[in-house]
Amino acid sequence: MNSLERNGQRMKKILQIAGAYIGVIVGAGFASGQEVLQFFTAFGWYGLAGTVISTILFAFLGMHVLQLGHHMQTTSHKVVIYQICGKYIGFLVDIILTFFLFGVAVIMIAGSGSIFEQQFGISASLGNFILTLLVIVTLCLNVKKIISVISLITPYLFLLMFIIVGFSLFNSDLNINQMNAIANSQTAAASNWFVSAALYVSFNIVLAFSMLVVMGSQEKGIREISIGGLLGGLGLGILLFIINIGLFFNIDRVLTVDMPTLLLASEISPIVGILMSIALLGMIFNTAVGMLYTFTTRFIKPEKPSFKTMVVIVSLLAFASSFVGFTKLVNTLYPFTGYLGFALVIAIIVSWITWKRRGTLSSEG
């Protein structure tokens, strides 16, 4: 194999890792615009600064968690958690993180039912079951195939969001001062824009942590993993920025809807609305697959024969739990987990500083 082919394969692997990282994090709330509205748009122009802070944190933290998974060669987050948090704090974080993985999967399944019902007129319970079935089939594949599936939807979402935001900028009837005034009058997710940006990243790193560890352990090249993590973080930042801009310029119309980006898409054309619904379902599917895979690997190694049986049992339990309701689940689980994430983010940063001092990471590269 010549150098050109090798470089092509490396670039393909880097983009696949970056796409999978983005795909795991961009679930229902991110792609729908609801989380972006609360964590960024509500701060007006300061929300744009918040997206910059989030981009830097997503890139750095994603890169290092992938490196941790590569270094420790584990398919479970438990080993990494205990390594970076210590015995006692690690135990607490492990229990809460494991519960959160299952909880987010339940939320994703419930969210899929809401979209099926709202956009396609299919009952929510049937929508929940359709997604559960797709998740079970996907989880019975090997992990490299799962990463490939997760990364596929990302370019499609980028293209769609650029189209939606591009059109929405021209449909705004407000001037900058009016947009800022309306945005600042809304209830935000935190007391100020910087805390809100940090809280958003911490919540999402908890969401992605286990899958990033698994992804890092499956890849051979530390350089590809590191660049993939950085590019994934940059991609998340770009998505945050363009969604935030689109919502900010249409702040008067998006405040009263559950899925703001779906509203903007439907205003362009019913066809674009359907395409956006498919993208949202793809993002929900990505997150559900990532969460249930890493939840199951916490207890059973993927190569064991009983793994697939456990996948079916866990997925059906998540399906049954989804009938609690999408909104109720989100309001209960998400805020608590964001603050837990601060402890995990601090542990990741401390471990990076420690490893750099020892030369652990540089010796691998």
Automatic annotation (TrEMBL):
<feature type="transmembrane region" description="Helical">
    <location>
        <begin position="333"/>
        <end position="355"/>
    </location>
</feature>
<feature type="transmembrane region" description="Helical">
    <location>
        <begin position="307"/>
        <end position="327"/>
    </location>
</feature>
<feature type="transmembrane region" description="Helical">
    <location>
        <begin position="227"/>
        <end position="251"/>
    </location>
</feature>
<keyword id="KW-0812">Transmembrane</keyword>
<feature type="transmembrane region" description="Helical">
    <location>
        <begin position="88"/>
        <end position="110"/>
    </location>
</feature>
<feature type="transmembrane region" description="Helical">
    <location>
        <begin position="43"/>
        <end position="67"/>
    </location>
</feature>
<feature type="transmembrane region" description="Helical">
    <location>
        <begin position="190"/>
        <end position="215"/>
    </location>
</feature>
<keyword id="KW-1133">Transmembrane helix</keyword>
<feature type="transmembrane region" description="Helical">
    <location>
        <begin position="14"/>
        <end position="31"/>
    </location>
</feature>
<dbReference type="InterPro" id="IPR038728">
    <property type="entry name" value="YkvI-like"/>
</dbReference>
<feature type="transmembrane region" description="Helical">
    <location>
        <begin position="122"/>
        <end position="142"/>
    </location>
</feature>
<keyword id="KW-0472">Membrane</keyword>
<feature type="transmembrane region" description="Helical">
    <location>
        <begin position="271"/>
        <end position="295"/>
    </location>
</feature>
<feature type="transmembrane region" description="Helical">
    <location>
        <begin position="149"/>
        <end position="170"/>
    </location>
</feature>
<protein>
    <recommendedName>
        <fullName>Transporter</fullName>
    </recommendedName>
</protein>
